[in-house]
Design a protein that fits this description.
With 469 residues, the chain is α/β, with parallel strands linked by helices. The chain folds into two domains: 222 residues, Aldehyde Dehydrogenase, Chain A, domain 1; 192 residues, 3-Layer(aba) Sandwich (Aldehyde Dehydrogenase, Chain A, domain 2), CATH 3.40.309. Helices cover 41% and strands 16% of the residues. α4 runs parallel beside α5. It is globular, with a radius of gyration of 26 Å. Bound molecules: nicotinamide-adenine-dinucleotide (NAD). Nicotinamide-adenine-dinucleotide (NAD) binds next to α7 and α8.
Amino acid sequence: MTDAALTVTRLRDAFDAGRTKPLAWRTAQLTALRALLVDHSADLEQALFDDLHKNADEARLTEIDIVVAEIDHALGHLREWLLPKRSPVPLLIAPATARIVREPLGVVLIIAPWNYPVQLLLDPLVGALAAGNSVVLKPSELAPATSATLARLVGKHLDPDAVAVIEGGADATTELLEQRLDHIFFTGGERVGRIVARAAAEQLTPVTLELGGKSPVWIDDTVDLHVAAKRIAWGKFMNAGQTCVAPDYILTTPALAPRLIEAVAQAIHGFYGDDPAVSHSYGRIVSDSQFDRLVALLPESGPDGEPTGGAVLGGRHHRATRYLEPTILSGVSLDDEIMQNEIFGPILPIVEVRDLDEAILVIRSRPKPLALYAFTESEEARRRILEDTSSGAVSFGAPSAHLSVAGLPFGGVGTSGMGAYHGERGLLTFSHEKAVLSKPLHPDTLRIAYPPFTRGKDAFVRSVLGRLR
Ligand code: NAD
């Protein structure tokens, strides 16, 4: 048997033995996960620095603390979430009771990407444990220090019979996908998302796909440009632009574009100083291949890394350290290469459109984004954006912040993903809502539904039940 097969068998045995179902086990695991994060925060911060040059404050804010908050929310609500929900029954089957019971699915697989390698592996784990499942975790091989640290810590802190980490890349994941699983939760890109969905279809395994895409920003002249520019720069250049919900591109009018570019440039300077290459707050690109992909998106660059053409601000880069300066591209056309795929790096194109009508047309003509951001004080513009476009989320005035709200489902729509999690939605993703009906045999009121269908029954059903319904 392969590693994957042995692990899944061990986890299934624990699930079948009922080990993961008691509320006490679930709360103990969530509490242990919380302790892992708090007590070993320094180890995780170091690993995130090694993999992504992630600043320790940013690591806590955008990875560790987010999962701790998710755990606290789950621990505070778990008992109430697991209460059976009563449902009224129709007169025809009364007396009876109906309720919905949330039961765990079994053995679930969580596959994570490299960009927020702690948050995106452990946040879904909170929902999976709260729901009472056995869990296989597959961290990303492209964040190797974080993957190794998590494998070590999870093995030490969580129940080894019910929670396992399998490290590795495509081969390890392929082996896992061949196992009988009860749910697959995948965060990553569209290409691998299709591979996962295909493998899941073979065994009719339910799947959640947390994918990416191009998340647009609309900004008009009703807003405080300087604060808006800071928010955009913060969301875009955090983790060197490698954030699934980062603003991908900006749509604005030709009149506002020059002032906006100046304001975003000022914000970048305020965040990272004269030379972001020496800022301890600025990250690095995860791998050489990602770096090469991003540099190819810049308008021609010379051998010294200085851009030689195109309307560009920033753009300096250094392959040995995988440094790519926060970059703004102006006057970008929808046909340009950079507008064809998710950028996933610190390059911010500005696309000029006539007005909001044209911006909405642009958004609607493209795949549905994971997030859509708007900076406008106009109620009418906000209403139109909400009603006339579709996206995983809409946020007015603050990119990325919606994912910290436990009560908001986090997920995509169309090619940005299917399914959602966070808070109670996370528990539901990893649960089956079982319908339970209970009707006493006496009195046998169902006899009015038994054949033969006589006139008397017909009259009763039409008159009495019809009126009471
Ligand atoms: P990816 O799709 O390349 O990899 C994700 C996971 O799939 C990794 O664990 C990897 O080991 C595994 N994998 C890679 N090749 C595989 C194969 N052939 N078969 C099976 N498994 C395979 O994604 P990534 O590059 O790690 O992350 C970037 C993408 O993730 C971006 O598109 C981004 O938008 C998206 N993303 C989405 C979210 C979200 O919450 N919706 C969050 C972060 C990233």
